[in-house]
Fold this protein.
Amino acid sequence: MRNWRVWLSVIVSLALFFILISQFLIDEDKLLSNAEEAAKEAFLQEPETANQDLEEISLYLPEIMQIEQETPNNLIVKQVDQLFLLFFNPLEDESSTLYYDSAKEKNPDPLLLKKFEDGDRVGYLLILKIGDSDLYEVQTGIGGKKMTSQTESKNLVETSRAMMEIIRSIKYK
């Protein structure tokens, strides 16, 4: 009789474990799907009006973000305690797949790598899990412009949208 209780306890414990794991996977899948949709919407919409006029480019930054450092073809942008790295190559137009191809080659098993196309524009969203933490690496790009950052799951969707909006707004001088 005692053996029966042990087996029942093991079966119930395993069932609860699998339910929790499947719930986590469903939540992460939904999170990735929402991040993809947010980035795609930002890619397809009209660019935000530039509110930053720099030496090489003009671009839109949300009010909560500020430029920490500007070097040729690069920016470091900060939002509270989150850093964003922005790279731009004026020799690559918006149809270039340079950064997308590089992301695909360097990350053979990403959580998400989606390519977006609209006319002559090619964009992408890359999301990687960082270890066992709640952090994700996010990279967005259009042609010869890309932005990368790390964010928690609770900010993944908004980070993906904001990064694509910023990339979309860049105009070369």
